[in-house]
Amino acid sequence: MAGASLDTVGGHLAVALAAGALATKDETGGAAIRDRFASLKRGIVRRSTKIDLEGDLAAVDRQATLAKELDEHGAANDGELVTKASELLGLIKVDEAARTAVEPMIGDIEKALVALSEVDIEPAPGKAEKAEHAEKKTDERPSQRKVEAPTTSRRAIPADEPSKTELERTALPIYKRTDRFFMKAGILGAALIALFAIYWGFIRTPSTDAMDHCRDGEAARCWQEVAAEDSVDDGRKMAKEPLELLCDKYKDPCGCAGLAYVKAAEKDTADCSGLTQASGIDPMWPCTCKPYNFWKWGRQRTPQCGIPRCE
Predict the structure, then answer these.
(1) What range defines the domain where residue 190 resides?
(2) Which of 221-260 are b and which e, b meaning 16 or more Cβ less than 10 Å from the residue's Cβ?
C-alpha cells in the first residue's frame, strides 16, 4: 500500500490516520493505540470541521486528499496534532499485533515518525507567556534555558505506555502479570519456613515423655503410647517398640497379640508365633484384650492363625 502522495506534514499526518485506522480495525488494536487514534481525530475536528474523516482513511486516494486538506487548514502548524500523530505511530511501531496490521505501510510509518520528530512548531498561544513567566520566576536568562520541542524523537515512542488490553493482561500467567512475582513468592516461602521452625523448636511439645517412661519401667505408659499411635489412621503407623516392650519385658499377652497384628500388617503372610506366645502367657487374652481395639488392619492378614475364642 502506498502512502500519501504529498511529502508534507499534512501527508505524514494522513499516514498516521491511515495507520491508526488499520491498527484499530474491528476493535482489535490495543487500548493505548485506540485512545491515541481517537484523540488525533478529535484534535483534527477541533482544528477544522471541513476536514472529512469519514470513510476508509487507509485508502490510497483518501491519504492524498487528507494530506491536502490538512495542509490547507493549517494542521502542519498545530504542535498538539503533530505530537499526537507521533505518539500514535510510535505505539503502532512497538506493538506486535499493530505492526502486523500495518505491515504494507511500515516504511511510510517510519518515514513519517522521523519527519514529524523534526518538525519545528511554534508554541501554542498562552504557552509563550507561561514560559516567559517561568523565566522571570527563576531569574534565568533565556539564552541559558534549554527549550525542548514537544515533538522530539524521545516522545515519539513512549516506552512505558501499555500496549495490551486488560483482557490480554489477565490472560497472561500469574508470574508475568504480577510485579516481582518470584521475589514476593520467595519472601512468603521464607516466612512460612521461619514460622514452622519457630513452632517446631519452641512451641511444639515433644511427644517422647510417655515412651521414655515406657522404657524406664512403666507398662501403663507403654499402653498410653500405643493408644496415641493407634489414633492415627487406625493403627497403620503403629510403632513396634512399645508393643515389643509390653510383650518381651512386661510379658503382657495383649502386647504380644498387638505386636503380631502390627507385623502381619507389614507383610503379605502372617507369623502366628505372636498369637501363640500371647496364648501361652494367658489363654484368655482374646477376652482380656477386647478393650484394646488397636489392630483392625493387621487382623485382616491373620485368618490362617485361627480365630481366637474365649472359653
Answers:
(1) 172-204
(2) bbbbbbeebbeeeebeebeeebbbbbbeebebbbbbbbbb
